[in-house]
Design goal:
12 helices, 2 strands, disordered N terminus
């Protein structure tokens, strides 16, 4: 892992390792998933790079179950997230999703956002009430949260993507990741992108993330909307399996 500096000599977030390195150098069989070891994960991850969009969507859904079942962060979640972040620039990420003219990159970004939300301050503070020490350094959750600057660096190039779905997914993921104190300097810029989503998006889960982030950062926001009081289970919106059938 290396760090570099911008022209202003300001610290830059670390780069995500190349996805090939993550795949080859991770001892998948030693890592816990929701259903045992992660020995089958390399096969699932490889399917994200196939030219068949249905195969890609199915693989992403499988990953959600294996390393995000019941909104839990497992030992294998971190390297899977690094792999997904690492393929955002891969040509396979431009494949249109089934029955929609939306690049699979939007689904990858939504998956990262969903996973990051499972480790967000909101979820962690709620869990710590029942499991003291949940964030002790070296725990699975603490280690995953330490990856947020690295994941942000992979997501941020898509904040101004030409495709609206990709752009919105990137902004939502970035808003969740910038809860990390080291990313606070990016919040003013993100607030501009966030307001654009709040003004134009009809996606309630995304609007909730935007509203919460702007409020937490001290920005003036509209009065709370009804969906803010509802339980938010992002995976019901984000697993992508609905794209495997034609819309009706």
């Amino acid at each position: 892992m290396t760090h570099s500096r911008s022209n202003a000599d300001a610290p830059r977030e670390p780069d995500v390792p190349p996805y090939q390195v993550v795949l080859a150098e991770t001892d998948w069989g030693s890592l816990q998933t929701a259903f045992g070891s992660g020995r089958d994960l390399p096969k699932v991850l490889a399917r994200l790079l196939t030219p068949d969009p249905k195969t890609q969507v199915t693989a992403l859904s499988e990953l959600g179950e294996m390393v995000g079942h019941q909104n839990t962060i497992y030992e294998a979640t971190a390297p899977v997230a690094m792999y997904v972040a690492g393929i955002l620039t891969h040509p396979a990420a431009t494949t249109p999703r089934p029955y929609r003219n939306v690049p699979i990159r939007a689904a990858l970004l939504n998956w990262l956002a969903s996973t990051a939300y499972d480790a967000s301050d909101e979820i962690v503070s709620r869990t710590e009430q029942y499991f003291p020490g949940y964030l002790t350094p070296g725990t699975i959750m603490a280690s995953f949260r330490d990856l947020r600057p690295m994941l942000y660096r992979a997501v941020s190039p898509f904040l101004q993507d030409s495709h609206a779905d990709v752009r919105e997914a990137a902004v939502v993921a970035a808003l969740i990741l910038t809860e990390h104190p080291a990313l606070a300097e990016h919040r003013d810029l993100l607030a501009v992108h966030a307001r654009a989503i709040l003004d134009t998006s009809s996606d309630d889960p995304n609007r909730r993330v935007v509203w919460k982030a702007l409020e937490a950062w001290g920005h003036d926001v509209p009065a709370p909307e009804p969906f803010l009081e509802e339980r938010w289970d992002w995976r019901s919106y984000r697993d992508g399996r609905g794209d495997l059938e034609p819309p009706f």
